[in-house]
Design a protein that fits this description.
34% helix, 11 strands, three-stranded antiparallel β-sheet, six-stranded mixed β-sheet, 8 helices, alpha/beta, Rossmann fold
């Protein structure tokens, strides 16, 4: 099977030597643009198959993901798992509501009492994946594994963080800085306002 990071590089999803701001507000010089992956359904299908291969021993009944990117990955992963295990594996997603992630639209009832795998595209702090895990648990689902396409911070993002088994399809360590201690800012490297959350960063500062 094709190497994941090589595939992402070939479609231009990995951008290096720049200055980006992430969802959590952290700064870093390498950005993995998962939105560059999703138009290629053949590539996304491969990623779903990679997830299925990782998760096949966990007896998963439902795959959940955080909106937005996790919706796509949960669908393709559930479809691949269904074929691989010859079972009807369902797919749901958690979305933002009241400042956190929740299972709405009746999805809470689907996960109740079921073995659930929670999947995400990328992790830097693991925050959104952790919230998705907690959303499933709050709905009465049993999270048997959390998984990510690319783990950018394996020293922090691991099984201990989520309290459940954790799997990653690939690791690409990216140096992450807090906004107040950013070496990229210190070196006056301009923040990318087209990709990532750089524009919101400036808006929050009133610039």
């Amino acid at each position: 099977m094709e190497d994941l990071l090589t595939m992402l590089e070939q479609i231009g999803a990995i951008m290096s030597n720049d200055h980006f701001v992430g969802t959590s507000g952290s700064h870093f010089d390498t950005y993995i643009n998962k939105d560059a992956l999703y138009p290629y359904t053949d590539k996304v299908a491969l990623v779903g198959q990679m997830f299925a291969d990782k998760l096949k021993t966990y007896n998963v009944a439902v795959v959940a993901g955080p909106a937005l990117g996790g919706i796509i990955l949960s669908q393709w992963t559930a479809a691949a798992l269904s074929k691989l295990t010859n079972q009807n594996v369902l797919s749901v997603y958690a979305e933002k509501k009241d400042g956190t992630l929740q299972l709405t639209r009746g999805y809470d009832k689907i996960v109740t009492g079921k073995n659930v795998a929670v999947v995400e595209d990328l992790t830097t702090t693991g925050g959104s994946l952790k919230k998705a895990v907690e959303a499933v648990q709050a709905a009465g689902g049993k999270v048997v594994v959390a998984a990510v396409m690319v783990n950018k911070n394996p020293h922090v993002v691991n099984s201990a963080l989520f309290g459940v088994p954790f799997e990653a399809l690939a690791e690409k360590i990216v140096q992450v800085y807090s906004p107040n201690q950013c070496q990229l800012c210190a070196n006056t490297i301009p923040i990318n306002t087209t990709i990532g959350h750089g524009k919101k960063f400036f808006e929050a500062k009133g610039k």
